[in-house]
Amino acid sequence: MSINSALWAGASGLLANSSALAAVSDNIANVNTVGYKRASAVFSPMYESQGATSRYSSGGVTTTNRFQISSGGLLTPGSSPTDLAIAGNGFFVVRPVAANVNATDPVLFTRSGSFTADSQGNLRNDAGLFLYGWPVAADGSVTTNPSDLSTMEAINLSSIGGAAEATTSIGVNGNLQASQTVSADEATYDATGSGTNMASGTVTPDFQRSIQMYDSQGGARTVTLSILKSATANQWHAELHVTPTTDITTGASLVDGQIATGMIAFDAQGEIDLTNTTLPLTLDFLSSTNAGPLGANEFQWAAGTGVAGQSVTIDIGSPTQPGGMTQYDSPSTLTSTQVNGSAFGTFTGVEVDDEGFVYAKFSNGIIRKTYQIPIATFVNANGLSVESGGAYSVTPDSGSYTFNIPGTAAAGTIASSTLENSNVDLATEFTSLITTQRAYSASSKIITTADEMLDEAIRMKR
Questions:
Q1: In Å, how far are 237, 436, 443 from 448, measured between CA atoms?
Q2: pTM of this prediction?
């Protein structure tokens, strides 16, 4: 009878509003939870077909919980470089395990980006989920794939050891005095003989400076530039030699630790003349393990150094560019040198840029890319299934994931030292709290009224 259906409608109203209250309660309780997404109870009537009958039977109400997953929260400053937020669309890729991952381990997605390193150096958030990313190869390349999880690994900071960087370029800025008197030694100067060259110390150079460079292990090596004015106008004899000489092994034509000999030439305006400059400007150091014979003008690091080969470019300037070597009638001087590379440095911390690159910082000033954090996007993010810890999993409604480089396609960018607040509005929740309580009370009134009517119907028989 209709009174019974009214009782059911009242009971369903109590259940539905209880569910709505639970959603509101979660929202209020999680107002300060990083990356939390607001839940809401959507009410739907349960109508029954009435046909041609004149009596009406109530169907009651039911609720479906929905989460505003695609709605972003306010971004606020974090306290650590590994506090991460996504400005725009997408999710971090996380998993509950960091090592020995197999196909049965779930892949999850989250906006909760409060990541810190655990005792093993893995980045994990407050829910214990590990952040995954694409590793950066030694040459700086990244193998990305929009759907292949196997190209990712848990981001681990403890695996980042110290770093050293070999020198690959040396820039020299200075001036050679145009009015320099030609030395008496110039008449017998010969770079190939120990008794007639500058590297041995027999011939006193008109200008000499030492430059520090770095080998493959970050060891400091000294290269000395010695220059002697030639009797030919606008030309200078030049030698580059390594000190001490025991650091280097040389082939024919090179003695006393020499690695390059030749002329440095200038034009009539005092600018460098690269056409007539014969000093080699590319130095190819062979590895200390090189066992082959050295040819003329070849050289290698001595076996005792144990370092790898390296190629070093010497930049002494260009007539079309400022800087480099010049020849003006002013005292000879080395203004500056620019040497890249560095000595060994220890790991000091990380930085994350908006493209998701995780940079390792070292005490020697080196900054190196180690990982790139992908952003996962979905056709229907609101269709994701809610998991514990503020994470989500794939469902047929959400569609499959696509891994994107941050800032490309539909993916947002990554903000370092930033966290995403919940998308809960307290004023809205308090309003919902009041209306839900009143709706609950009204549903209970339906039950008491229907009960009184049933009681009245029963008494009619007495």
A1: 111, 19, 9
A2: 0.74
